[in-house]
Design brief:
Number of strands of chain B: 0
Order of helices and strands of chain A: HHHEEEEEEEEEEEE
Number of helices of chain A: 3
Number of strands of chain A: 12
Distance between the termini of chain B: 11 Å
Helix content of chain B: over 70%
Helix content of chain A: 25-40%
Strand content of chain A: 25-35%
Shape of chain B: globular
Structural class of chain A: alpha+beta
Radius of gyration of chain A: 25 Å
Oligomer: heterodimer
Radius of gyration of chain B: 15 Å
Number of helices of chain B: 7
Strand content of chain B: under 5%
Chain lengths: 284, 154
């Protein structure tokens, strides 16, 4: 402290320092509580903040809404053509679906014979992406539906071409999806070619996964498709996750160094699919 | 002076609006420039206690809007504002380049401490883009020149 400072200045400096210490303690406390999954007392604060900033977020989304509605108005002819193409496509898919239903019934019968785990019935819910937060290390989507629309934490999220991630936070009318490419995210996976089991980890880089714990003699190659194995019960089995991009065997290491590229691109569509299963909690 | 006071009142909501708009498209590092700019602005123009409380509260709002971990942005804006405010009397008597070095040190230190180190403990380091910090540091100079009597505050 400056020795020549006036008593009033010293007092104000001390007051400032005390306030700073209190605020730092509050900030650190909030950080610790929010990081602890067992404690949910910060959620009301977050919801209050979201409610307070909702006019601002509505205002911020206004130009994008205007742009989209203008696009719809300008493209009537294009929309008509798209509609006809989609009707044709629906007809083709319905025809294939008949065959798939027969195969599914046969698959279930065979699984019962093998006493294998039954496939979880899955219902898909289409939800719009309202915001993307694609920072390095932090890959999140904010969806425009939440608890009021039946979304719950842990719900798997897909795009048309594969797994994207899972719902991490849910508020009344919004939910946050953490993408599988973010660090600390992992999905139990299976190599389609030989049914080998593995785990796909996020690296914090868009467009890249690490495939872990594969011994040096594992049969895995570039181009192999990895799909969800269904182990753990979070993600239903059979959805594409990634294609193996590189396989390296380092001398002296016990495991292979395998990287894979996600099949799904979060920027390809303005909406995602939520997989709603009867019980999304892990089945041990 | 009137212009800078008006700016200091308008910048926080404008920064939040820019951030929300950018997040609805695809959040980029540049969207954080106005946010970091609020630190020197708060440090220069608001009265002592208000500057720190304002920066902390604004940071908390950003944590909420970005669905981030609560406290990260609040601390990231609150601590450097406190440091700037505490060192303000001394630094304003110094040449501008010394002020810039001081501001840069505070902002860079905050960026490293809170975004790299603290979250690294949880194996999930947050992105800490440097460009917004650099821009905010450089903008300290015109802000400091415009604010003729910053000690008067509001």
């Amino acid at each position: 402290m400056d020795g020549s400072a006036l008593p009033g200045q010293r007092r104000s400096r001390r007051r400032l320092l005390s306030l700073g210490i209190v605020l730092i303690a509050i900030g650190a406390g909030l950080y610790a509580l929010d990081r602890s999954p067992q404690v949910g007392i910060v959620e009301p604060l977050r919801e209050l903040g979201l409610a307070l900033t909702s006019p601002l977020r509505w205002l911020a989304a206004w130009p994008e809404r205007r742009r989209q509605s203008a696009m719809v108005a300008d493209n009537q002819e294009q929309l008509k053509q798209d509609y006809l193409a989609l009707r044709k496509r629906t007809l083709e898919l319905e025809t294939s679906l008949g065959q798939l239903n027969a195969l599914r019934a046969e698959n279930t019968r065979l699984r019962r014979l093998l006493q294998a785990t039954a496939e979880m019935p899955a219902e898909l819910q289409v939800v719009n992406i309202s915001r993307m937060q694609l920072f390095p290390f932090r890959h999140r989507l904010v969806l425009d539906q939440g608890r009021n629309q039946g979304i719950s934490e842990g719900t798997p999220v897909l795009s048309a071409s594969g797994v994207l991630g899972q719902v991490q936070q849910v508020s009344a009318d919004e939910s946050v999806v953490v993408l599988a490419t973010e660090t600390e995210q992992a999905i139990p996976a299976m190599v389609v070619r030989n049914a080998g089991q593995t785990i796909v980890h996020g690296l914090g880089k868009r467009g890249l996964y690490r495939v872990s714990w594969l011994p040096q003699n594992t049969d895995i190659r570039e181009g192999d498709l990895l799909v969800t194995s269904g182990l753990g019960g979070r993600f239903p089995a059979g959805f594409p996750i990634a294609v193996v991009a590189s396989v390296e065997a380092q001398p002296g290491e016990r495991f292979l160094e395998v990287y894979a590229r996600p099949t799904a691109d979060v920027t390809e569509q303005p909406e995602v699919l939520l997989v709603r299963t009867p019980d999304p909690s892990p089945q041990e | 002076m009137l212009l800078i006071r008006l700016l200091s009142l308008l910048l926080p909501p404008l920064a939040l609006l820019a951030l929300s708009w950018s997040a609805s498209v695809s959040l980029t590092a540049w969207a954080l420039v106005p946010v970091w700019l609020c630190v020197p602005l708060y440090g220069l123009l608001l009265r002592g206690s208000w500057s720190v409380a304002g920066a902390f509260g604004f940071g908390l709002l950003i944590d909420v809007v970005l669905y981030g971990t609560l406290g990260v942005w609040a601390l990231a804006l609150g601590i450097p504002t406190l440091a700037l405010r505490l060192g303000q009397q001394r630094s304003l008597g110094q040449p501008l380049w010394i002020q810039l070095v001081g501001v840069a040190a505070v902002l860079v230190g905050s960026n490293v401490l809170l975004f790299r180190w603290l979250d690294w403990l949880h194996a999930a380091p947050l992105n800490a883009p440097w460009a917004p910090v650099l821009v905010a540091t450089l903008l300290w100079a015109p802000l400091a020149l415009l604010a003729e009597r910053p000690e008067a505050g509001f």
